[in-house]
Design a protein that fits this description.
13 strands; Arylamine_N-AcTrfase; alpha+beta; disordered N terminus
Length: 288
Amino acid sequence: MEKPGAMTIPALPFALDAYLARIALKEAPAADADGLATLQRAHRLAIPFENLDIALGRGIGIDPVSVFAKLVSAKRGGYCFEHGQLFLDALEALGFAARPLLARVWLGRPEAVPPLTHTLALVTIDGAEWIADAGFGGSYAPPMPLADGEEAESPDGARFRLARDPEFGWMLSRNGHGGMTDGRSPGEGWQDQYSFTLAPVFPADLALGNFWVSEAPESRFVQNRIVSVPLPHGFATLNGRAYRRHSKDQSTEAEIGDPRVYRMRLSMMFGIDLTAEEVAALGLFGGG
């Protein structure tokens, strides 16, 4: 219920055709399980995960207008709060019933309980609940039915498993090649990715998580310049000047020492076009 005197700002219609063109889908997928998988996969292959605007001193807006302008119109990437909003808007436009969830990221084995710094979607299809994640930069997990013990295989061959957690609600775990991650995975075997509950999430909750991620000195997104994208059968990452690409049985690792090479790699592998001045401002090569 609105407070007396509150102003209602009408939402702009979602430009579905422009979004579908951005993720290279020729037609809108159906609002079913196959359509959800198709949409999430196309979204992640086309729109990279990245946090470069934090280092560039730009605020991270997570409202529908801001994320569409950046991730679709400007053909940039973003991190989970940006991807999550865009994906939810697309799901709604396609007729899905979905809402956001908040998660604690355990990948990398933090020493203390991590904060709620990740968001994913809970999607209801024919009365059944699914989780879908278009914005996790650490690895690629396909949409999964929300069921204890449920497992699924991603296109890179990794296995994902959902399990109830007595303390944190639900835990998503992964078992797969470490090269198909952003480098935080110490090796193969089942490893916790993130935990979440089904508690309602409000815009203020997302705004708080987004603020912590983009402003807190201890946030890895404040400390590092991170880019990643799933490949059709692999994964590519750029963490600072360290470049890693793994696809099937081929791996490439390199330390980039020239800002011109960094800029070229951003464009050719991740589809992110920054000016030479913006690359210098990232502070990776003695500039900024």
